[in-house]
Please model this.
Amino acid sequence: MSVALLLVPLAIAAAAAHAKLTEKDSAATVCRVQTRMRDADLLAAALRETRAEVTRAGADLVADWAGVRARFGRDAQQIWSAHFTGAVDEPRAIDIVRAVDAAYGRQVQRAVLDRLTRRAPAAGLRLESRSVTADQAVRLVFAVERA
Amino acid sequence: MKRIVVTVAADGTVNAETLGITGSKCLDYVALLEDLLAAQAVHSRYTADYAAAENRVAGRSRQEQRDEA
Model:
């Protein structure tokens, strides 16, 4: 062993690791939350994973669940914020964003694994084994065939 | 055999470890992994083999100095 690394995919904003409520209207049905999600396609896939009907509105994404709508737009740091309307209060909005965030993590996991297994051979890495741990992490062991 | 073990967590974060790659050569793999994973290394630490390799180099250097004296 020689070096151990923790890497954060570019699809995840390192600065905002978790959903948090940043603003709340006086009306109970409007909440604004900031998330760690950055990639529009992965976010759309994550929203669909939570059974949302997803449409694009310009640069924004609009997600509809039963009675709840969330409009996702990006800020200057390219981090998505969600604006909730409908039958939703603050705890419900945070629950939804947490569910979307978890789905987004799984989408990033899939994207990273796909990219890695596709590009590894050209970098001189041969996949020796692949296993899934109890916490659903995927462990890949590569043999280094050339430096 | 040199190996790289990559663990991709369900939240999308990645842990990677090089095996059998000693000394400063392991640093070459940081940039390779960042590129392969489209990721940024936010934390790194040297493990036992790195220190062992450095100690072997230091020990050899001291031995060479004694031989020359």
Summary: Chain A touches chain B through 41 residues (CB under 8 Å). The longest strand of chain A covers residues 125-132.
